[in-house]
Specification:
The protein is of the alpha/beta class. Helix content is 39%, strand content 14%. The strands form three sheets. Strands 1-9-8-5-4-2-3 form a seven-stranded mixed sheet, with helices on both faces.
Length: 375
C-alpha cells in the first residue's frame, strides 16, 4: 500500500470528463485571460460564501498582499498575525515593509490567541490577520471586538478553511473569510478547493474596497491605460476558473468526506492518551484541511519512519515557528512569548487527509499508528 497525504488523481478521475471538456472549451475560445469562466466563477463563489464581492487573483499569497495594499497600510504600520502558520501569511506583511507582529496561538484550536492579540497592540497597530488554521475558524467574536475597540482592520487568511462556518455567540453564522474587512484564500491544488495550478481570491462586503482591490490586481487601472493606484499583475487564469467551476458544486461533499475521515481517526485514537486528537471548537465547523494530532511523549521522528516503512505518508505542519525563521531574525522576537507554538512545533503530526480515504485505508493507517504508539 502507498498512502499519500493528498490524492488529487483519484479525485480528478471522478470529474475528468467534465474538467477535460471545460479546459478544451477555453482553449477553443482562446479566452485565456479574464474569460467568461472567470466572471461566472466570481459570481458563483460569492453566492456560495454569501459575500458581496469576490475578486479572483493569481494565488493566495498575492491575495494577502493585495488586501494590505488596498487598506492603504504604510511602512512601519504593525500587523498582528499568528506565529504558527504557513510563511505566506507574514511574508507578505514584511514584503510591504510593514511590521509583522507574531503572537502565540491557542493550545486547543492552534489558531491565534485573542488574549495575546490584545497584549500586542501598540499605537502603530493597524490590522489583525487571523489564520483559520487546518480548517477551523479563529475566534472571530473576540477578534472583531478587539478590532472595533482599537479601530483596526481584520484580514482573514482562509486559505485552509474555505467552506467552514463561524458560529458566533451572537446568534449568527457566516462563512470563514466573510466576517472581517477582507478575506483571502488560495486555490493551490492541495487546498480544500484546489485548481490545477496556482489561483487565489479576495472577498469583501465593502463596495469601495472591492473597487480598489479589482483595480490593484490589474495594474491599478479601471479604464485601460489609466492607472489610479500602484498595482500588480495577479489574475486567475480562465482555465483555472473553468476547473474551479466544476469543483465548487462538490466543495461541501469534499469537505464532508474530510470530516468523515477525521471522525474515523478521532474514534480510533479516542482511548489513546498519547495522542490528542483535534479539538472541535463549538464556534466553528471544521473542514479538516489537515488532520493534525498532538503527540504526548511519543518519538515523532521514529513514528514517521515506522509509517513511512508501511507506505503511509505523514507530515509536520509546521516544524519551525515563524519567530524562529532566519528570514525574520531582524525583527527580534522575544523567544519567551511563544510557549504554545514552540511546543506544537515539537509535537504535532499530520496524517493523510483528503477526499478519497475509505475505511479500509483509514483502518490500516490508524492500526499502524497505534501499533507503534502502544497506548
Ligand atoms: C496555502 C496558504 C497560503 C498561500 O497560498 P498560495 O496560493 O500557495 O500562495 C497562505 N496562507 C495559508 C495559511 C496557506 O495555507
Amino acid at each position: 500500500m502507498k498512502i499519500p497525504m493528498v490524492d488529487l488523481k483519484s479525485q480528478y478521475t471522478k470529474i475528468k470528463t467534465e474538467v477535460d471538456q471545460k479546459i478544451a472549451d477555453v482553449i477553443e475560445k482562446v479566452e485565456f485571460i479574464n474569460g467568461s469562466e472567470v466572471k461566472l466563477f466570481k459570481q458563483e463563489l460569492a453566492e456560495y460564501l454569501k459575500v458581496k464581492h469576490v475578486i479572483p487573483c493569481g494565488n493566495g499569497t498575492d491575495a494577502l498582499q493585495i488586501a494590505m495594499m488596498a487598506l492603504g497600510l504604510q511602512q512601519g504600520d504593525e500587523v498582528i498575525s499568528s506565529d504558527f502558520t504557513f510563511i505566506a501569511t507574514v511574508e507578505t506583511i514584511a514584503l510591504l515593509k510593514l511590521t509583522p507582529v507574531m503572537v502565540d496561538v491557542r493550545p486547543d484550536t492552534f489558531c491565534i490567541d485573542p488574549d495575546c492579540i490584545e497584549k500586542a497592540i501598540t499605537s502603530k497597530t493597524k490590522a489583525i490577520m487571523p489564520v483559520h488554521l487546518f480548517g477551523q475558524c479563529s475566534d472571530m467574536d473576540r477578534i472583531m471586538e478587539i478590532a472595533e475597540k482599537h479601530n483596526l482592520f481584520v484580514i482573514e487568511d482562509t486559505a485552509q478553511a474555505i467552506g467552514s462556518d463561524f458560529i458566533s455567540e451572537k446568534n449568527w453564522t457566516k462563512k470563514a473569510g466573510t466576517i472581517g474587512h477582507i478575506g483571502c484564500t488560495s486555490f493551490f491544488p492541495s487546498k480544500n478547493l484546489g485548481c490545477y495550478g496556482d489561483g487565489g481570491a479576495i472577498f469583501t462586503n465593502d463596495d469601495e474596497l472591492a473597487e480598489k482591490i479589482s483595480s490593484i490586481v490589474n495594474h491599478g487601472m479601471k479604464v485601460r491605460y489609466y492607472h489610479d493606484n500602484i498595482g500588480v499583475n495577479s489574475r486567475l487564469d480562465t482555465i483555472q476558473a473553468a476547473i474551479l467551476r466544476v469543483k465548487l458544486p462538490h466543495l461541501d461533499e469534499y469537505n464532508l468526506a474530510r470530516l468523515k475521515a477525521a471522525d474515523y481517526y478521532d474514534k480510533a485514537f479516542a482511548d489513546c492518551t498519547k495522542i490528542t486528537t483535534p479539538v472541535r471548537s463549538p464556534k466553528s465547523t471544521h473542514t479538516f484541511h489537515q488532520y493534525t494530532v498532538v503527540l504526548n511523549n511519543v518519538d515523532r521522528k521514529a513514528l514517521m519512519e515506522h509509517l513511512n516503512n508501511k507506505g503511509i505518508a505523514s507530515a509536520v505542519y509546521y516544524p519551525v515557528a515563524l519567530h524562529n525563521q532566519k528570514a525574520f531574525q531582524d525583527f527580534k522576537y522575544n523567544p519567551e512569548d511563544y510557549p504554545v507554538t514552540d511546543k506544537l512545533c515539537e509535537t504535532v503530526l499530520s496524517l493523510p487527509m483528503n477526499t478519497e480515504l475509505d475505511s479500509e485505508t483509514l483502518k490500516y493507517i490508524t492500526d499502524s499508528v497505534l501499533e507503534f504508539v502502544c497506548c
